[in-house]
Amino acid sequence: MNADEYTNLEQVERSHWYYSGKRELVRYWLKRCGPLRPDQKLLDCGAGTGIFAQEISGLCQVSVLDDHEESIRLLRARFPEDRILRVSGAPIPVADASFDYLTALDVLEHIEQDRMAVKEFARIVKPGGHVVITVPASMALWSDWDVALHHHRRYDKAGLRSIFGAEQWSIEAVNYTNIAAFPAVWAIRHWRCLWARIRRTNTRLEDVTIPAWVNWVLRRLFVEFGKVSALPFPFGVSLILVARRR
């Protein structure tokens, strides 16, 4: 991401319904895989500002990985140097089977060779260990937001499944999330140019502060639908995948 995107992210990430809801949802799925123990190790890939990793660090031993200078600066304010990995591409500088858990929250879409990244995940996660992955869904939602964040793609369920090969991974859950917001997000992103002309602003609605009660409702809808695994949703703004290393 661009450096100014990290500034925007840090300003809204703690309370914004999407970012806070995503962190809550991933914690839920990690606990379903676990429970996490203090002797276990987790690697948060593409750690960004480090807020998620900081929140989960009370449950297990957390290391963080990123390749952007602005992210590394923010991570150093939250983690000791020996817990910070800086890497661009593969391989990740750790031994095979180093981690019990790996998280990658909206990371794979930034990586051109996403299959190679998942193979590297398989190398460093212990047999029986778990990954929890989130990605943006549906190319129908592609917009200037994706361009600004340097996304290579948005995923559908089949595409996300396909990069987690059955010889290395057992997929325990994969589903669309952020179901309730999909119609509004679709409309907003398809009419963004018209919106900008009418309002005479280039402000992205993803960064706009909304009333607290609306923020709470959107977060609850996001998280509660995201906990569902038995009902396969046909669409959503995001996808979540939980897989166990064979």
Characteristics:
246 residues, alpha/beta, seven-stranded mixed sheet, 20% strand
Overall morphology: globular
- What level of helicity do the residues show? 25-40%
Tell me the structural class. Answer: alpha/beta
Task: Give the helices and strands as they follow along the chain.
Answer: HHEHEHEEHEHHEHHHE
What's the layout of helices and strands?
Elements: H1 3-12, H2 17-33, E1 41-45, H3 51-56, E2 61-66, H4 69-76, E3 84-86, E4 99-105, H5 114-124, E5 125-136, H6 144-148, H7 157-162, E6 169-177, H8 182-190, H9 192-199, H10 212-226, E7 238-245
Parallel strand pairs: 1-2, 1-4, 2-3, 4-5
Antiparallel strand pairs: 5-7, 6-7
Helix pairs in contact: 2-10
Structure description:
The protein is an alpha/beta fold. It contains ten helices and seven strands. It has helices at residues 3-12, 17-33, 51-56, 69-76, 114-124, 144-148, 157-162, 182-190, 192-199, 212-226, and strands at 41-45, 61-66, 84-86, 99-105, 125-136, 169-177, 238-245. A seven-stranded mixed beta sheet has the order 3-2-1-4-5-7-6. The longest helix is centred in the N-terminal third of the chain and has 17 residues, at 17-33. The two termini are 33 Å apart.
